[in-house]
Design goal:
The protein is built from 15 helices and 13 strands. With about 400 residues, it is of the alpha/beta class. The chain has a domain of about 210 residues: Rossmann fold. The protein has a six-stranded mixed β-sheet, sandwiched between helices. Strand 10, helix 9 and strand 11 form a beta-alpha-beta unit.
Amino acid sequence: MFKLRCIKCGREYSQKKIIYTCECKGLLEVVLDLDSIKVKKRDFQKRSPGVWRYREFLPVAGRIISLQEGGTPLYKAENLGKKIGVRELYIKNEGANPSGSFKDRGMTVGVTKALELKVKAVGCASTGNTSASLAAYAARANLKCFVILPAGKIALGKLVQAILHGATVVGIKGNFDAALKLITEASLKFNVYLLNSINPWRLEGQKTEAFEIAEQLNWEVPDRVIVPVGNCGNISAIWKGFKEFYDYGFVNSLPQLAGIQASGAAPVVNAFKKGLDEVSPIANPDTIATAIRIGAPVNAPKALRAVRESNGMMEDVSDEEIITAQKLLARTEGIGVEPASAASVAGLIKLLNNGSIGKDEKIVCVVTGHALKDPEMIFNKYEKPLEIEPTLAELEKIIKS
């Protein structure tokens, strides 16, 4: 029903082979035989919400490792839409997943695949969310888990999750890109199954974001889907999901994608705007949005292909724009997200203001992680709590002011 194929040279590999990139160094992707799938829309409605609601489109077998991920809310953001002048705006809140980020969608499939391959240990490099998610799913699967992190640069809300779930946490003197290089080398030498987004099986879980958006909008695809971009796996997975539903006949159109990076970590945006296929890495990426603070994203070719195929666009946003969007989303819709998540809303506002996006479009902003992933940033950047004597007179001054 499926095969593993290189997006660069087209070479195919067995699904039983543990491999992350082609011999030509190209990225691998899972290709489904859609003709062999037999399922109808009404079949989904008989099942619980979540990633495995769409199991016919997920290329793994055997014991499923799940924490009931997916099935996240799609909010119609009427207050925010009115504020920024968008006719029909939705927020896909991936922070509602079990570990608080979209990574859980990938890990349920990736760790299930790990069991299918009979591995004993899994590992990842992380800016925080990947480690938190993998640690939880590895615990569920009774697998050893190793995570490599940039020492001192991980938001506390994410680091404590990896520790809580029993992962072996190793900090390095370097950034995420150095951490990924190290765990990739270790995975090949020490038989640790790598579950960063370079693993094509993991991205199969993340494509279910697109499935849910389509179903939640009564099978009407939005005009545009806006996604924060870090290591570039998620935006390419979402595009893959929409394409599979389109090719299968479940939807009648495809959305345009908009990929948003932080200005201090925007190598893919730079390549896109210059019309290049090759991305020039940024040696020292710098942004308050730690989840997308990545200078050499491994899935950049997939992201560029997805955005271009969708006739979409890419943009970068400053840290100031990200914080403004985070605050706006929280205070108009009651949706609290970490800074990287707010990049999609910041990108929407910027693209509206420069005329790149029409105000009459139906737009979905994907927000990828919960606000409590990075509480220190809120304490550092937002208003401090007021302190008064416990008297009604003191409180009255504040209320009247």
